[in-house]
Design brief:
The chain has about 525 residues and is mainly α. About 75% of the residues lie in helices and about 0% in strands. α10 packs antiparallel against α11, α17 runs antiparallel to α20 and α18 packs parallel to α20.
């Protein structure tokens, strides 16, 4: 034994022994599990038309394939900390992967849309525990000095997955079959279960605290769980289908809104009074956790909202194919993959407030840059704007995730992970819902304004109509047919311009939301010490 080893501080040896030796492999395993789950949120989006046609359903009916997953996921996610405490974190994590994989197999083999929706509910419920438990495993597997780097691996998974999901889903659907967007999870899940059994371990301190809690008379929060199911379930349905049903003009959506509001209000009142709450809302008394949750909500809002808007913009306004639209998004995911490890190294050395503030500023700048898009914007310009956005996101995600645990007791790790992930997912749902609603309303507004200014008595309109009429007559059309074609062309131009302007308004809205968060970053912890 060397002289150094012989005289090493016993406290340092004990601290090192507290963390598993194969923790970097653990980071990869839990990161892949989170990637698989997040991917399934977006990978089915581009395949809905194929699914509807294959299962003899309408496009509207097929959207329940997405809604069912999101509702079940939203309900289980905040309760995952409670499930971890009841069953043990490792058992719950592996059980979730097994159920997710079996449900994926069932989805791929579903004989009808009804059965597919049922299996998607099971898949979403199983997946709801994967993200927060993966994050909690990372938090307990790494010492504070290495935690930021570990979260960078997790960050790559949860940010890259929604970026590549539509492209991967489109490629699989076009070249193989939509069934394989689900069946692909089965072998991956099998490998993850085997690796998790071998590598993942609940720390002795965690397991001791869990057993002591269970032995002391652990109570099941049935009322809290019921309020959670109704509140978040109705909220997710409201957000997912509100725009489609014209919001409160629909009795169904109005009912969902009332049930969601009353249940969530009752949940907020009920949970702090419980000794063993399904959601520990008392965590919001910790400043860093509260700020992290707000930041994660808004990050989800902008990330999911913009990931929806950009492909729609290039397809509806610029006429791109679905594959080409995916290629506009995907390079941004590669920027995340490249930058996350770098940010992980910098997180322990630079003040987190400056990193997050700088990242937010870059994201806001990218959104404001998108307001300059026009009908002639090139593929390179579009990709560059997306890459600038994801560059900023890389500097936000890791510090915001890490500071959520600062100052919070170690036995609350599972609850912290669950609530932070819930904030991001609900933010994403709100972002998508608000972006689509704002897009439709602003599109109608701009269309009305443009139509008001295009009259038969306007000199520019007359000149353009005459030019187009002459063009179509030169192509062989009669005078009347040429004039009708000219008027139809102008109507199409108005529709295209109103769509363009509505997308630019959405980009401006997302930019303002992110810019408003910059001052909030100053109230965060510096992040240079990450101890509980």
């Amino acid at each position: 034994m060397s002289h150094t080893a012989a005289h090493e501080d016993p406290a340092a040896i004990a601290a090192r022994a507290e963390y598993p030796a194969g923790r970097w492999l653990i980071a990869v395993v839990v990161g892949l599990a989170a990637f698989m789950e997040v991917l399934d949120i977006s990978i089915a989006n581009v395949s809905l038309a194929h699914i509807a046609g294959s299962l003899s359903a309408s496009q509207d009916e097929a959207t329940w394939v997405l809604t069912a997953y999101l509702v079940a996921n939203a309900i289980v996610l905040p309760a995952s900390g409670w499930f971890s405490q009841v069953f043990g974190r490792k058992r719950y994590f592996i059980g979730s992967i097994v159920c997710f994989s079996i449900a994926s197999l069932a989805c791929g083999l579903a004989p009808s849309l009804g059965w597919l929706v049922v299996f998607r509910i099971i898949q979403g419920a199983a997946g709801g525990g994967l993200q927060p438990v993966a994050q909690a495993i990372l938090a307990d597997s790494f010492p504070p000095s290495q935690r930021s780097m570990a979260f960078s691996i997790y960050g790559i998974a949860v940010v890259f997955a929604p970026a590549i999901g539509p492209t991967l889903g489109g490629w699989i659907t076009d070249n193989v079959s939509w069934h394989w967007i689900f069946l692909l999870n089965v072998p991956v899940g099998g490998v993850l279960v085997a690796l998790s059994l071998a590598l993942v371990k609940d720390s002795p301190a965690y397991e001791k605290a869990r057993r002591a809690k269970m032995a002391s008379g652990f109570r099941v929060d049935y009322i809290g769980f019921a309020l959670l199911i109704v509140g978040l379930g109705c909220l997710q349905i409201l957000l997912d289908r509100g725009q489609q049903a014209d919001w409160l003009a629909s009795p169904f959506i109005t009912t969902m809104a009332v049930l969601a509001g009353l249940s969530i209000l009752a949940l907020i009142i009920w949970e702090p009074m419980q000794d063993d709450p399904i959601m520990d809302l008392r965590l919001f008394k910790y400043r860093n956790f509260a700020i992290s949750s707000v930041m994660m909500f808004m990050l989800g809002f902008v990330l999911f909202g913009s990931t929806l808007l950009i492909p729609q913009f290039v397809q509806r306004v610029l006429g791109y194919t679905a594959t080409l639209a995916g290629l506009v998004i995907s390079p941004g995911g590669l920027v995340i993959v490249f930058m996350m490890p770098i940010v992980g190294v910098l997180s322990g050395k630079l003040d987190a407030r400056w990193m997050v503030g700088g990242g937010l500023s870059v994201v806001a700048l990218s959104m404001f840059h998108m307001t300059t898009f026009n009908m002639d914007s090139s593929f390179t310009q579009l990709v560059a704007a997306r890459c600038l956005q994801t560059l900023g996101l890389a500097f936000i995600f890791i510090p915001v995730t890490s500071i959520a645990y600062v100052g919070v007791p170690a036995d609350k790790t599972d609850q912290v992970s669950a609530l932070v992930n819930l904030a991001r997912n609900v933010g994403g749902s709100v972002g998508i819902s608000l972006a689509t609603t704002w897009l439709a309303r602003r599109g109608q507004y701009h269309h009305n304004v443009l139509v008001e200014n295009i009259t038969p008595y306007d000199h520019q309109t007359q000149s353009l109509t005459e030019q187009l009429t002459q063009h179509f007559m030169a192509a062989g059309a009669s005078m009347d047919a040429a004039r009708q074609q000219a008027q139809a062309t102008i109507a199409n131009m108005v529709a295209s311009q109103s769509q363009l302007l509505s997308f630019l308004d959405d980009y401006w809205l997302l930019g303002m939301v992110i810019a408003a968060l910059v001052p909030l970053s100053l109230f965060m912890s510096s992040g240079k010490t990450h101890s509980h």
